[in-house]
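Lay summary. Proteins are chains of building blocks that fold into shapes, and those shapes determine what they do. In this project we predict the shape from the chain. Here is one chain we studied, written as its sequence of building blocks.
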Amino acid sequence: MAMDIAHRRYLIRTIAFMVPYVAINMAAIGGAFDDRTKPGSYLLGLAVAAPVIGQLWATLALMHDADEYVRALTAKRFILASGGAMAIFTAWGFVEEFARAPHVPGYAVYMLFWACYAAVTPFVRTTR
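And here is the predicted shape, written in a compact code that computers can read:
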């Protein structure tokens, strides 16, 4: 029963943070923020980062609210995904520098983290 509550809270929090994230990015894609000379451009950058921070908090809150097994399993997946994303992004940064590969913006590490999380989840089935 407690797991259902923890996962429901996680789902609600994720939706609450991802709706503004998607809305701001859709507005940016639509050209709403094309004038980047305005002082508000810095606030826009921080505004779109806020839901990302909130969603990461939602994941950490899930770990806090869950039972010991789910907490350990989620933490293990989170750690492996973080390490994988950092390793891949760092490697690409060096390839950009030394081989003049196309630039990838820093915010892509967030998407890469969740891709790594999805990749490790089927293989991380125990807390050992």
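What the prediction tells us: The CA atoms of residues 28 and 47 lie 12 Å apart.
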